[in-house]
Design brief:
Blueprint: H1 12-43, H2 49-60, H3 72-107
Helix pairs in contact: 1-2, 1-3
Protein name: Two pore domain potassium channel family protein
Keywords: Membrane, Transmembrane, Transmembrane helix
Organism: Sediminicola arcticus
Length: about 120
């Protein structure tokens, strides 16, 4: 945790900085993931870079594949990338909303239980 237990809520300016920092982390995770997809579809699926970007974007957002994969290697990559993308998309949403959820818990005065 970034704040001490008895310390109050962050001021709005500090909270905005934290939200931007976590948004940056989310964006980096998405960019790395889309890069993996672009490389994989280009290398295994023998697609042009723009088509690889299109396929990776569609899979990463849960919309589904665009181009048919013709080789076994391409089909394996597409399958594993789809599984990976599902986890990454949910992780990105969780990372992005973590500081907002944390702030909401403070507003509702929800505290951690001491063990």
């Amino acid at each position: 945790m970034n704040t001490k237990k008895n310390k109050g809520m962050l001021p709005p300016r500090e909270f905005a900085k934290r939200v931007l920092k976590y948004a940056f982390y989310s964006l980096m995770l998405l960019l790395i993931s889309i890069g993996i997809g672009i490389f994989g579809y280009h290398y295994f699926g023998d697609l042009e870079y723009i088509d690889s970007f299109y396929n990776a974007s569609m899979i990463l957002t849960g919309m589904g594949p665009v181009n048919e994969m013709k080789t076994e290697g391409a089909k394996f990559f597409a399958s594993f990338y789809a599984l990976f993308s599902g986890v990454i998309f949910l992780s990105t949403v969780a990372i992005f909303f973590a500081p907002i959820a944390h702030r909401l818990m403070h507003l509702l005065r929800i505290e951690e239980l001491d063990d």
